[in-house]
Amino acid sequence: MKILISDAFDPSLPSKLARFGEVFDDKERLPEADVVLIRSKTKVTREYLDNAPNVKLVIRGGVGLDNVDRETCRERGIEVHNTASASSVAVAELALALMLAIPNRVIEGHLSMKEGKWLKKELKRTELYQKTLGILGIGLIGTEVARRAGAFGMKVIAHDPYVKAHDFADMVPMDDLLGHSDFISIHTPLTEETRVMLNAAMIARMKDGVILVNTGRGKVVNEADLAAALESGKVRAYGTDVWTSDPPDPSCPLLKAPNVFMTPHIGASSKENLLRIGDVIEEILEKKTGD
Questions:
Q1: What tens digit of pLDDT does each residue of 15-68 get?
Q2: CA distances from 280 to 48, 86, 160 (A)
Q3: Could you give the CA distance from residue 69 to residue 67 in angstroms, rounded to a whole number?
Q4: Nearest-10 crossing angle of helices 84-101, 271-289
Q5: Cα dihedral angle (9, 277, 265, 156), rounded to 10 degrees?
Q6: For 225-261, how does the pLDDT look when each residue is reduced to its tens digit (9 = 90+)?
Q7: Are 135 and 110 in contact, with CB atoms under 8 Å apart?
Q8: What is the average pLDDT score of the chain?
Q9: Sheet containing 235-240: which strands, arranged edge to edge?
Q10: DSSP for 56-75?
Q11: DSSP state of 219
């Protein structure tokens, strides 16, 4: 078996996988590969697969599979897996970090002190305690967010068309979630139904002054509509780790909108998560080879 590591993984991964065959990171050798390991940078398009005649398995280190042409993979008998279980804690912790940093004015406090200012009176904080958190999409990551939010004393509600009941959240209709949430955390996959779903019409149904956190997918947001809502104050703040492209285009309106708190798609990049991703990849290959 020939295994191409096409994106950045933990340095320990090649030695972990050596027992399954030859492991290499030379992308020029794609035509030789039986297995391709990717994260978010490599785009497994039809054209990519045209240059990979031997590939039988694509493993995405992470959750989202929108950078994989799954239809073409199905046509060609190529199996596609992700490592969703590995990434849940890392992404959930970043979502909570943004959720804490925004109302606690952590970033403004830090930057103002670097500038020699002392804004003790000016920086008014609000708490998570007894606020309502609405979770859009309560799969593995949304579940970990809900579990942690409950420990802060938040009321947790969620909307997910594929989940009827949940241990850590009350499942509610979309309009109830939008109208009652002080915070909304986005964890929906990118599908034709969710693409740019967070648009002006959806924002209009939200509670005034809502704080949005997005560690799901950047393309579920209509950037221009959200920027306008931030300008008007309808949306109090937007914390995001995800973008329509990595990195975002310089013309992205969210880069200049007020009260946007951003990170460069690092949700799944914790040291511990990269090790867990390697463990899950190893498990997948064990099942495939019987080793």
A1: 999 999 999 999 999 999 999 999 989 999 999 999 999 999 999 998 888 899
A2: 24, 7, 26
A3: 7
A4: 160
A5: -170
A6: 999 999 999 999 999 999 999 999 999 999 999 999 9
A7: no
A8: 96
A9: 170-171, 155-159, 132-136, 183-186, 210-214, 235-240, 260-262
A10: -EEEESSS--TTB-HHHHHH
A11: G
